[in-house]
Amino acid sequence: MLACLAPNLTDFTYASNMEGAEAVARSHGYYLLSAPFADRSQFDALIEELVGYRRVDGLLVISPYLDERRVYLPDDVPTVLMGGCWRDDARHMVLLDNRDGAQMAARHLIALGHRCIGQIIGPRAEDCTQERELGFLDALVAADIPHDPSLTVEGDWSATSGYALLKSLIAREPNLTAIFAYNDRMAVGAIRAARDLGLRVPQDLSVVGFDDMPLASYFDPPLTTLRQDTFAIGRACASLLIDLLDKPATGPTAVRLATELVVRQSTAPVRGKEG
What we know:
elongated; alpha/beta; six-stranded parallel beta sheet; 7 helices; Rossmann fold
């Protein structure tokens, strides 16, 4: 038996991660138990039950760096961390190259002539938010575009937050021509808010998301976004864990997966820059 611990079981990304992991586990004769935890205390209780009572053979932990829970993982159970960014104290990990993905998003908008670009970021406590923000800033520096912190607002991954924050950004900076939202749900909320404000997407405002969730190509307009293969991430994590069970590694292993820019109809050249 293997166990996969996630902050919740309803988020699309986490659910797809677990589905990929379960497919690999099943093909190797393992049962994968998935369990949610909301905070450190729940995490500790789950670890105690899974390791002490159920005696699982290995652990997969999604978003291991939301707080200090990483410190309390058992040393005697093979464990693979899913997501986050590499740290000196890390164990075996599969991570997405969030920084490179955000650079691609920013470079795409800059190449279209955009200079006044807002960001709707995720919660700052999360590694993926921090890495994406670094990537975005990398692209601004490379293009010699000054960074305006007032154009960055913090959302909670929901479409509702994307909607409200786009409205607040436009009120603060009516000359905004592009938005990079750190997930597709906040991006679609921003698109709806733009329309309610009388702005056309992409003619008046270009929007880029992150994830390429299954409905992204059916949004109106279809969403330009960064594709992360969440199913493949889960598969890679389970494969690495099973390899560790068969042959323990002598040192930490990091598997880094790339993102892909998918250009659709939610982005266009800034007004006056066509051609």
